[in-house]
Amino acid sequence: MVSSELIFGVSFFFQCAIGFVGNSLLLMLYVYISFRKPQQKKPMDLILAHLTLANMVTLFTRGIPEIMFCFGMRHFLDDVGCKALMYFYRVARGLSVCTTSLVSMFQALIISPNNSVWASVKVRSPKYILHYFVFVWVANALIFISVIRDSEATRNETNVRYRYATHIFVVRSIRNESHNAVAFMFGMTFHDLIFHFLMGLSSTYMVLLLYRHSKQVQHIYSSSHSLKSFPEVKATQTILLLVTCFVLFYWLHNCIILYLTFNFEKDVELETIASFFGGCYPALSPLLLIGSDSRIPKLHCTPGKPQRPPKDFMNGLVNT
After folding, report:
1. Mind listing the pLDDT tens digit for each residue in 266-288?
2. Global confidence as pTM
3. 3-state DSSP call for residue 265?
4. Does residue 44 lie within any of the structural domains?
5. What's 35's domain CATH number?
6. How many other C-beta atoms are found inside a 10 Å radius of the C-beta of residue 140?
7. How many domains, the chain?
8. Burial of 66 (0-12, 13-18, 19+ CB in 10 A)
9. Does the residue 302 lie in any domain?
10. 8-24: per-residue pLDDT in tens?
11. What is the rounded (10 degree) CA torsion for 254, 259, 264, 267?
12. Does residue 253 belong to any structural domain of this protein?
């Protein structure tokens, strides 16, 4: 009979393999376009390149240690390695939250009509992308500095000093005062909720904007050439799907972690499942982006060419 550890190990291996290949291809695409085809470069490329880097670090610090554990390598980290692993994982995961939120907000600005209240922000926004990156890097580096203090390598799995494990072999200790742990959890939750709120606002705006435009131009399309067939709309739908994917796996992961936090009984399999859900978004997001990028040659050809929308519609909806 196949053991659960072998199943988990193989699952993490394929998750990491798919994620590393997908994110690497996407990153190479953006680098190639930047240096070899600058005429095809888009402001969104820089944001997505940053997202792929955050995803790769998240996969490395989450998936690789889990694979090693599932295949029998126990307690191979000392305290220094544990602290570094947990800190980089938390920072990368925080950057993934911030960058996914920026992707959603930036796409909402891109498709906003030129006569909207966001017109001036839409023009200036590409100039401040790097400023945003500096801000989120500094903010996440400071927010998760307490992870270095509180994380340590496991030596005895039955040690009652440990409240919960975020990896099988890396734990957060409750040896410090309880209010420190509560403050950390509150700060991390507040940090994530802010960016989830911004994602929700921008996603709702995009859905309403697409719905309004579809009603305005519905009469000019035949049944074979719907509004969904245009790359401008497909790009926005991809971003909405990306955000949905992120929120789904984020809350699946966090709900399990919250359960483990307040449950003193150690559940290794549930911790491993939470880790797997935590790696699903970094592994799957590049596949969504690769499939929707019109600059990547496709293996199929679609006969005919859809009718282009009117000029006023194009002013509102442009590709990423």
Report:
1. 677 888 888 899 899 999 999 98
2. 0.82
3. coil
4. yes
5. 1.20.1070.10
6. 21
7. 1
8. buried
9. no
10. 889 999 999 999 999 99
11. -80
12. yes
